[in-house]
Amino acid sequence: MRMMSSDNETEVASLQAQLRTCTARLEAANNELEMLCHAVSHDLRAPLRAVDGFSRMLLQRCEGRFDAEELRLLQVVRANSATMHRLIDDIVDFARLSRDALRVVDIDMTELVSQGWNEVSRGFAGEMRVQSLPAARGDRALLKQVWMHLLSNAVKFSAPSAAPAIVIGGERHGDETVYTVRDNGVGCDMTYADKLFKAFQRLHGASEFPGNGIGLASVARIVKRHGGRVGAESHPGHGATFWFSIPIAGVFE
Fold it and tell me: What is the CA radius of gyration of the chain?
C-alpha cells in the first residue's frame, strides 16, 4: 500500500482546517440571519400593528367628523401599514428560502400549475393555456411558489391587453427540463434584464403595477437550490417569456 507523504498529509490537514473554518462561518452567518428574521418578523410588526390599530380606532371614534381629505389620509396610513406587513412577510420568507431543507419528491408539474393558477387567477378575464409539461423532481412547496410568482406576474402584466393570453409550456433539453410562462402583456426593456431576478429591483413603477421586487428574486433562489437556471425574454409592448430549468437528474443545494 502506497503511504501518503508528509507533504500530502500536511496539505490535507490544511484543507480540512479550512473546511471547518468555512463551516463555522456559515453556521454563524445562518444564526445571525435567523436572529435578523426574528427581529424583522416580531419587532417591526409590533409598531406597525399599533399604527394600524390606532388609525382604525380614530376612524371609528371620529366617524362623521372628518372631511373627505382627512378620511383619505387615514386610509393612506392604513394602506401603507398593510403594505409594510406584506413586505416584512416577503423578506422573512425570502431569507428562509436558503435555509430550510429541501423535501425532494416526484412532481406532476401540470397539477402543480393548476393549483397555483387557482390561487392567482381571480379576476383574470383572458385565456390561459397549458401545454404538455414534463414531470420534475424537487421540493413541491417551493416549486409551487415559483409557478405562483411567474403566473401572478403574467396575470398582472397582461391585464392591460385587450385580450390577455398566457401560455405555459415545458420541454426537455439535454439534461434539463425548461419550463416557460409566456404572456402578451406590457413587456419590459431587456437593457435592464440584470435587475429582473434581484431583490427589490423593479422595471415598472409601483404606481403602474403593485409589487415589492421580491417575487422574481425568490424564483431565482428556489431554482438555484434545485440546480437550475432562470431567464427572460421580452420587448416593451410585446409581452414577456419567463423560463426556468430543472435538471432531470436532480442537483440540489
Answer: 23
Under DSSP, the state recorded for 102 is: P
Q: What is the pLDDT of residues 126-151, one digit of tens each?
A: 899 999 899 999 999 999 999 999 99
Residues 243 and 129 both lie in one domain? yes
Using a 10 angstrom Cβ sphere, with 0-12 exposed, 13-18 middle and 19 or more buried, the burial of residue 231 is middle
Question: d(Cα 13, Cα 22) in Å, to the nearest integer?
Answer: 14
Residue type, 150: L
pLDDT in tens, 82-127: 877 777 777 777 667 766 778 899 999 999 999 999 998 888 888 9
Place of cell 366617524: 63
Domain ranges, residue 199: 104-247
Between 81 and 244, the higher pLDDT residue: 244
Please state whether the predicted TM-score (pTM) of the whole model is above 0.90.
Answer: no
Residues facing 171 on adjacent strands: 178
16 falls within a domain: yes
Residues 169 and 121 in one domain: yes
How far is it, in rounded angstroms, from Cα 218 to Cα 244?
12
- In 10 A of CB 57, how many CB atoms? 10
Q: Residue 130's closest CA among 160, 179, 168, 83?
A: 168
Rounded (10°) CA dihedral 190, 193, 199, 203:
-20
Identify whether the C-beta of residue 236 lies closer than 8 Å to the C-beta of residue 187.
yes
